[in-house]
Specification:
Layout lengths: L8 H50 L2 H5 L1 H15 L2 E5 L5 E4 L14 H7 L4 E7 L4 E9 L5 E7 H52 L13 H37 L3 E5 L5 E4 L1 H7 L11 H4 L3 H11 L5 E6 L7 E8 L9 E7 L1 H37 L4 H37 L5 E4 H11 L1 H6 L3 E6 L4 E4 L1 H18 L5 E8 L2 E8 L21 H5 L7 H11 L3 E8 L2 E9 L1
Parallel strand pairs: 12-14
Antiparallel strand pairs: 1-2, 1-5, 3-4, 4-5, 6-7, 6-10, 8-9, 9-10, 11-13, 14-15, 15-17, 16-17
Length: 584
């Protein structure tokens, strides 16, 4: 049976109690009618007996001896009392009858009521009268000399009276039953209404609406149940809210983590993963739950690590590189979930070490570059010194060798000085020892341009400055001047002959100093590396123009020490632009 077809509590109560009530009332009505019917018959019997005794007292020897007088008296009394009266002698002969001719009537000694009367009792009988062609109630008593006096009434009157009484009884029963049904319905509604409220409240609770409490009904038993359910709902709501808060906090923590975290069940299916893991492995956290790790991850090393972790209780650590456009270096750890989780699954933690790998490469490149940069002048110096020591040369050759030794020594000294300058800038920055003051920056820039004018003129280059003379900034004048010197020197050194070097200084949300020169275009992927120490685009070609390879690294550190940035903003046929941004 479906939920909708099941009878309600109200129907159950009515279907249970109304039949019982109906049967009880009908039984009571039937019993009452039967008792009253017997009582009515008994009263009629007594009435007939009283009439018979009364008639017996009216009979004298004079009347009994005169058949004519006896018949007249019998007829008169019968008419007055609406009773059939029959006088029977001891032989059974009918002497007189109020309704029939006694001469044609049969002998009555075989009648049950007459037979009972003759043994000294009052005789009663109900039977069909062939004389009157209807059912009659008879009562017979004995007068003196064995004469029987019988009174009778037609049963039709008695039956009609009893039927009317029965109808009245059953009408009353029906009215009582209707009233009882209405009262039962009303009382059942009163009892069932709180149960309906409890049911509706329980359905709301089951649907997750724990805020709306159940109204407290007046019935004590239901009252206690409603109070208990409200208390249970409040406690459950508090626990659900606490769990939800904990889940939100855990989700927020996992989402904020830079490490990728993946939880797997014992079958290697995804339980959850955080945002970082989705980015690392190009997964959508909403679509992976319940799916297999081996289905979504195709990296062979990761799959081998998973298999090894599932077959062992020990941690499995891997260093891998992901593919695709956003390739990353990851340190991945497979470990068993804590026993408190109730699962034998795994937790996978991935750390993005791409930046560390890049820094490691920078460090390796720096060591290789500085070794190369230092080795070249040192080898050259040693070679020429050994030649001077071992070979007798004329003065012209000796002077040329000494000039080369001086040039290489000067370059070596410049490298050492720039390295010392970088180290000093880093130390002051870390120790917060850079002393800044509010300075007008345009005069400093103009002084630098004046210093490099002769060098620019030799290459046929013209330097332009577009700036507001009143611009000021919080700077260390010496470091700021060194920064501008390196930018301008770099622009002249690598710029094309007979081209322009343009400087523009402007202020918006920050102070912008841009330097643009005409040179060979630099590919965008190499822009960040230009600020690495000793990094050169084409080492053989750029080494010919001199320099230590540390100028832009010094610029970057000075900019950072002032809370600013330095970057290439364009490099194409229109020129290469370096832009310095300082806090306004």
């Amino acid at each position: 049976m479906s939920q909708k077809s099941k009878p309600t509590i109200l129907k159950r109560l009515l279907l249970f109690y109304l039949p019982i009530l109906a049967v009880s009332l009908l039984g009571l009505g039937w019993y009452s009618a039967t008792i009253l019917e017997k009582f009515h018959y008994t009263e009629k019997e007594k009435d007939l007996e009283a009439r018979a005794i009364f008639i017996s007292e009216q009979l004298s020897q004079n009347i009994l001896s005169d058949v004519q007088k006896l018949q007249s008296l019998t007829t008169a009394l019968g008419n007055k009392t609406n009773t059939r009266i029959t006088i029977v002698n001891k032989t059974g002969k009918v002497l007189a009858d109020s309704d029939e001719d006694p001469t044609i009537m049969e002998n009555h000694n075989d009648r049950p009521e007459i037979m009972t009367a003759r043994i000294g009792k009052t005789g009663y009988a109900i039977r069909y009268s062939f004389t009157l062609s209807q059912n009659m109630m008879y009562c017979a008593v004995i007068h003196e000399d064995g004469i029987a006096i019988r009174t009778s009434l037609p049963m039709t009157t008695l039956t009609e009276t009893v039927d009317r009484f029965r109808k009245s009884v059953f009408l009353v029963v029906a009215l009582i039953l209707i009233f009882a049904a209405g009262l039962s319905f009303y009382l059942s509604q009163k009892v069932v209404a709180p149960i309906h409220e409890l049911t509706a409240g329980a359905e709301r609770f089951a649907a997750g609406n724990l805020e709306q409490s159940i109204p407290i009904p007046a019935f004590a038993a239901v009252n206690t149940l409603a109070t208990t359910m409200n208390t249970m709902a409040a406690q459950l709501n508090d626990r659900i809210n606490a769990i939800a808060r904990q889940k939100e906090e855990q989700t927020a923590i996992l989402s904020s983590m830079v490490e990728g975290v993946i939880a797997l069940d014992e079958n290697g299916n995804f339980l959850s993963l955080n945002r970082a893991a989705g980015e690392f492995f190009d997964l959508n956290s909403e679509n992976v739950t319940g799916r297999k790790f081996t289905e979504l991850i195709r990296h062979s090393e990761l799959l081998n690590g998973l298999a090894k972790a599932q077959s062992s209780d020990e941690k499995v650590e891997l260093d891998i590189q992901t593919g695709g456009a956003s390739s990353r270096f990851l340190q991945v750890t497979f470990s068993q979930l804590a026993p408190e989780s109730g699962s034998n699954g795994l937790v996978v933690v991935a750390n993005d070490v791409t930046r560390l790998k890049q820094l490691e490469k920078v460090r390796q490149d720096f060591i290789a570059n500085i070794s190369h940069e230092l080795k070249t002048p040192i080898t050259s110096i040693l070679g020429y010194v050994e030649t001077l020591q071992d070979v007798e040369l004329d003065s012209t050759a000796s002077i040329e060798f000494l000039r080369i030794i001086h040039r290489q020594s000067t370059r070596l000294n410049a490298i050492v000085q720039d390295l010392l300058k970088l180290s000093e800038i880093e130390r002051k920055r870390e120790m917060s020892e850079i002393s800044k003051s509010t300075e007008n920056i345009v005069p400093i820039v103009e002084s630098v341009l004046q210093e490099f004018k002769v060098i620019a003129d030799k290459k046929g280059m013209f330097m332009k400055l577009d700036a507001d003379e009143s611009l000021q900034a919080e700077i260390d004048p010496q470091l700021f001047k060194s920064l501008v010197q390196n930018l301008v020197e770099n622009a002249i050194k690598y710029g094309l002959k007979d081209s322009d070097v343009e400087l523009a200084i402007a202020q918006n949300d920050f102070i912008s100093i841009s330097v643009t020169n005409q040179c060979e275009a630099i590919t965008e992927k190499e822009w960040p590396r230009l600020f690495e120490r000793f990094y050169r685009l084409e080492k053989s070609r750029h080494r010919k123009v001199g320099g230590t390879g540390l100028g832009l690294a010094i610029v970057k550190h000075i900019a950072a020490a002032h809370g600013g940035t330095i970057a290439i903003t364009q490099s194409n046929e229109e020129g290469t632009t370096f832009e310095l941004r300082l806090p306004a």
